[in-house]
């Protein structure tokens, strides 16, 4: 609960973030879905995925063993998997880069040898409570994938496996989170029409989860990812007369407004116990703070906080 999936912002750093951040991006049609792969085995059931647009370059990996297993290493003191770039997980996924880290574990960018696509693999810490939470998340992800036709609302699970006492969850690779995009864009303001489009997609995604009797409980900009990493530079008229600290007169805007929800490690079924505290502090509903009990509306409060934040300026 309160962990950050792809970008690795620990809970201890959350209170140091600016309380206000600018508005967001530009509105373009979502990326059209690509052809569908055959079903991929996910440990307990089958889930279909979409082919990534990334091309596989055999020259780049020339001379590197495709199926070699890395040497056995002890985990670090916190139970994180110790890896090296270029090694292979489960004889199928070559590690290319570290994408982020959180209290749950770490996320690695990998190449899937079977599908020739780039994926994001969440490697959970080898601690019992995190392993249990990961299995619950897998159950939620598979339930969402079964009902989310086309995979437009939530990040899609591709596979999962238990590797050296670490639960590894394979996801489609998406773009940066809304928070990450804002941070790298110097927290500059964004067009209100894009914020409106984000709001529409968020409400549709939350309604989709609620129809399945699921409550996300941890909605925040860090857990909302842009589908594409592509962006354009446009003049920032607000700073034409007064440049920013880095001396630039331009800001970045995403080419595509499509977003997806991630991080379902805190997702709760409607019938489960709701006595504990949920949501990251800045997006926590009043009924949660006051200990009055919570349910579906706590997600809607978080959506409202997010939209206000995206419409705000420094």
Features:
5 helices, Transferase(Phosphotransferase), domain 1, alpha+beta, 6-stranded antiparallel sheet, two-stranded antiparallel sheet, globular, 314 residues
Domain count, please report it.
2
What order do the helices and strands follow?
EEEEEEHEEHHEEEEEEHH
The value of Rg in angstroms is 20 Å
Q: Helicity level, as a percent range? A: 10-25%
The number of helical elements comes to: 5
> CATH superfamily of the largest domain, called what?
Transferase(Phosphotransferase) domain 1
Number of strands: 14
Structural class: alpha+beta
- Portion of residues in beta strands equals 15-25%
Write down the CATH topology of the largest domain: Transferase(Phosphotransferase), domain 1
CATH top level assignment of the largest domain: Mainly Alpha
Shape: globular
Q: Can you walk me through this structure?
A:
The chain is built from five helices and 14 strands. The protein has 314 residues and is α+β, with helices and mostly antiparallel strands. Strands 3-4-5-6-8-7 form a six-stranded antiparallel sheet, with helices on one face. It has a two-stranded antiparallel sheet with strand order 1-2. Helix 3 runs antiparallel to helix 5. The chain is globular.
């Amino acid at each position: 609960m309160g962990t950050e999936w792809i970008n690795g912002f620990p809970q201890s750093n959350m209170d140091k973030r600016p309380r206000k951040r600018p508005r967001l991006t530009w509105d373009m049609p979502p990326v059209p879905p690509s052809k569908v792969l055959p079903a991929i085995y996910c440990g307990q059931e089958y889930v279909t995925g979409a082919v990534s647009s990334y091309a596989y370059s055999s020259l780049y990996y020339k001379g590197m063993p495709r199926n070699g297993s890395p040497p056995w290493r002890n985990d670090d003191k916190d139970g994180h998997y110790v890896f090296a770039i270029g090694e292979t997980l489960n004889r199928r996924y070559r590690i290319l880069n570290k994408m982020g880290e959180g209290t749950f574990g770490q996320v690695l960018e990998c190449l899937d040898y079977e599908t020739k696509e780039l994926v994001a693999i969440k490697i959970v810490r080898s601690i019992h409570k995190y392993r249990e939470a990961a299995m619950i998340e897998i159950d939620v992800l598979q339930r969402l994938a079964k009902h989310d036709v086309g995979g437009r609302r939530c990040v899609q699970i591709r596979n999962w496996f238990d590797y050296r006492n670490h639960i590894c969850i394979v996801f489609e690779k998406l773009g940066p989170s809304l928070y990450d995009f804002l941070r790298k864009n110097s927290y500059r303001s964004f067009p209100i029409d894009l914020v409106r489009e984000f709001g529409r997609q968020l409400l549709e995604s939350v309604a989709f989860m609620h129809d399945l009797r699921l409550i996300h409980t941890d909605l925040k900009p860090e857990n909302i990812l842009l589908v594409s990493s592509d962006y354009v530079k446009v003049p920032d008229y607000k700073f034409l007369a007064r440049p920013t600290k880095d001396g630039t007169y331009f800001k970045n805007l995403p080419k595509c407004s499509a977003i997806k929800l991630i991080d379902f490690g805190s997702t709760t079924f409607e019938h489960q116990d709701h006595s504990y505290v949920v949501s990251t502090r800045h997006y926590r509903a009043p009924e949660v703070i006051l200990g009055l009990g919570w349910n579906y509306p706590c997600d809607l409060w978080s959506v409202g906080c997010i939209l206000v934040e995206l419409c705000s300026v420094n």
